Amino acid sequence: MSESTLEKHVFQAEIQQLLDLVVHSLYTDKEIFLRELISNASDAMEKLRHIEATEKNIHQPTLPLEIHITTDEEAGTLTIADHGIGMSHEELVKNLGTIAHSGTKAFLKAVKENGGSPQNMIGQFGVGFYSAFMVADTVAVHTRSWHADSPELVWTSDGKSGYDIEETQGLERGSKLVLTLKEDCREFATESRVKHLIETYSNFVGFPILLNGKRINEVEALWLKNKSEVSDEEYKAFYQFACKAWDEPAYRLHFSADAPITINSLLFAPSENPERMGFSKAEPAVALYSRKVLIDPAPKELLPDWMRFMKGVVDSADIPLNISRETMQDSALIRKLGGVISKRVIKMFEKEAEADPEKYRGFYKKFDRFFKEGVATDHANREALAKLLRFESSLTEAGAVCGFPDYVSRMKDGQESIYYLVGASREQIEASPYLEAFKSRGLEVVYFTDAVDEYVVDSLGTFDGKKLVSVRHGGVELEDQERDGESLDEAQTTALCDFLKNHLGDRVTAVSSGKRLVDSPVIALVPADGLSPQMRQMMKAMDENFKDEVKVELEINPRHPLVRKLAEAKDSKPEVAALVAGQLLDNALIAAGLLEDARDTVHRMNQLMEKAMG
Ligand code: ADP
Fold it and tell me: Collapsing DSSP states into helix, strand and coil, what is residue 230?
């Protein structure tokens, strides 16, 4: 052999600092080094593709653009080889001996300025190639540049003070990194461990990755393709494989955007909801990628919690590869990304619901709780989400549903509020005396029958600027209606109201004659800020000592025969009238689901029956 070509180099001071940090401070998530090196290999081949378009004299132009990874358990080595652009002597010195890119520089600067823990900052910058020294005692980079007359070189370092560069022979174009693993990192020389890492972090890298000769990454990064290039079967296969789903996707959203940030995204709504089948709360399942390289398979900070049923991929080249979980939390970029995506997802549901209401209805039956949760918790999307809610109403057939926009489009002239009633079922709601006044005026009333609906309506408050008003509440202004039939006159009505208030005392806040009733003698109205029967039941279930005095306002129907008779009886048979007064209130409370203790009721009933029979 001719004389040695070995040259000794020292690292730039900053690189030494960086290596020191990498080796001594970054002990968690060591495994990410592989993702970094595969990503570099992929970049190098991507660059070669660009060069191919303009250059003719590329060394070994027919080499396959593949990443070959080999493990040698016995020797404790891991090798990552590519046929990318490789590096010349000058490039080796510049790229792997000085701070080659601004990210590393910024990282060091931040560590210096903050004096803080690099662990928290590493995420924002990433250390790329140098992460190899987290797991390796020595790293050798064998490389041959694409330039026709470039030398074959090997760069070697223990990651401490410097590196050697020596000429070598027998290399193909590209780079081959040989990592001699540290004693406690020899797991990365086992095939199964490395296979798992590739599948986890690099499954969608755009070049084939072969591990010990076997192809690992099978799946194409469909989200980067054009919609027109992807078939339904491919989407479904991707959904089931990449999102580890076993059902059919119900809906999908494939979109890309350039502003305010670059996004390529492929999302699916499943057709089955495991939470509903008794499984525990789902984990987020929309993975975050940066240029096909996985950043986090289940980022909690990306999308609002209610969207946890969605599956798929969000890829943004604007997100630094090495962003960490800690930094994601307060990253404005991640928030912006999540904001754009959740809006698109909601819009997608809105469009799909319009295009095929039947299908959406079936979907909604299984996934309604997520949308309701969203209305209650996701301020930014509240109104948009409210459009996705579905319910029956006094104007829908039993079993058919509508949404708030339908309701609003049907509102009567001069109607300012959206009326609703919460109850256990359509039947129960329809039997309620509260509906009478609204039905007779042709005002639509939304029926809420899910235990959480009340809470949802409370958080929503308004839709499209219209207040949501429970028909159980006092103070609802309804326009006058002409009524046929006999009625108490004003004086008689006032006298009866006084009599009732007198007898009922503290049990009612007020007694008045109302415009609401058609068929029932009386109705009990609750204050708008009071607890509903559903809430009351829930509170009681949670706390057995729970006591909340029910104070209702009693509204009487001056046209009802029973009420008219009572007006007479209060003077002619005061004893019976007093019993009837108490019983009327109890009946109203029963109808309202508010009667807590029926002992008095039964006793009074018995007295009334005795009197009736003389
Ligand atoms: P980054 O990849 O973020 O620029 P790295 O520290 O990982 O930073 O790498 C520094 C530089 O070394 C890269 O920008 C690239 O020019 C060069 N490099 C790294 N790996 C390879 C490779 N496999 N083939 C060719 N060049 C490489």
Answer: coil
Which pLDDT score, from 0 to 100, does residue 52 have?
Answer: 84
Q: What are phi and psi of 209, to 5 degrees?
A: -110, 125
Ligand 1 center to residue 83 CA distance, Å? 14
pLDDT at 123: 46
DSSP 249: E
The dihedral region occupied by 78, where left means phi > 0, alpha psi between -120 and 50, and beta the remainder, is beta
Cα of 534 vs its chain's centroid, Å: 27
Residues having CB closer than 6 A to ligand 1 are: 40-41, 44, 82, 84-87, 95-96, 100-101, 103, 128-130, 175
| 14 neighbors 99 (Cβ within 8 angstroms) | yes
**What residue ranges of the chain have pLDDT lower than 70?**
1-2, 25-28, 100-108, 110-127, 322-330, 480, 482, 530, 533-534, 548-549
Residues 6 or more apart whose CB falls under 8 angstroms from that of 147 comprise 57, 59, 88
> In this structure, are strands 214-215 and 249-257 parallel, antiparallel, or unpaired?
unpaired
pLDDT at 568: 94
Give the separation between CA 394 and CA 426, rounded to whole angstroms: 9
CA 320 to centroid of ligand 1, rounded, Å: 15
Which pTM does this prediction carry?
A: 0.70
390: amino acid identity, one letter: R
Distance CA 199, CA 187 (A): 16
d(CA 65, CA 74): 28
CA distance 403 to 401: 7
Q: How far is the CA of 39 from the centre of ligand 1 (A)?
A: 9
**Element of type H or E holding 393:** strand 392-393
Cross-strand partners of 7: 165
Cα Dmax for the chain: 132
Nearest to 503 by CA among 612, 595, 604: 604
Most informative mutation of 95, 96, 157 for ligand 1 (most atoms within 8 A of CB): 95
Q: How many CB atoms lie within 10 A of CB 612?
A: 8
Partners of 72 in the β-ladder: 77
Q: How far is the C-alpha of 596 from the C-alpha of 590, rounded, in Å?
A: 9
| Among 292, 270, 284, 304, CA closest to 202 | 292
Residue 254, helix vs strand vs coil: strand
Domains of the chain: 3-215 (3.30.565.10), 224-365 (3.30.230.80), 488-527+546-614 (1.20.120.790)
Phi, psi dihedral angles at 48 (to 5 degrees): -60, -40
> What Rg, from alpha-carbon coordinates, does the chain have?
36
Write out pLDDT tens, residues 217-231. 877 889 999 999 999
- Note the pLDDT of residue 108: 67
How far apart, in whole angstroms, are the C-alpha atoms of residue 30 and residue 357? 49
- Two tokens at 504? 């009922």
